[in-house]
Amino acid sequence: MAPRSRKRKAEAAMVAAAEKREKLADSGEGMEEATVVIEHCTSRVYGRNAAALSQALRLEAPELPVKVNPTKPRRGSFEVTLLRPDGSSAELWTGIKKGPPRKLKFPEPQEVVEELKKYLS
Description:
Keywords: Acetylation, Redox-active center, Selenocysteine. By secondary structure, this protein is an alpha+beta fold. Helices cover 45% and strands 17% of the residues. The protein contains 3 helices and 4 strands, in the order H-E-H-E-E-E-H. The radius of gyration is 18 Å and the shape is globular.
């Protein structure tokens, strides 16, 4: 006979995942302005580049909120996305399929700022 604790843990994990999805869906529904989301892997190199990029975006468009890793990031990811108020999104940069070398995964902040200007105008 299988131990009961495993089944309970699995059920609790499923309930927690469902609650997390609902919370994320609820937080996106009331969005009244565009938001820039930076998703980056949690390694040190990725964090430094994300910080520099978010600073450049905040200087260029101070009215736009910039969120860094609002959810758990994917392994090896570095993406910048513009979330519009109507629920659609526009990818400003993705470095997932770039590299090696690793430095190709990270954009120059000015490149992303230029892409953002295209989508905002």
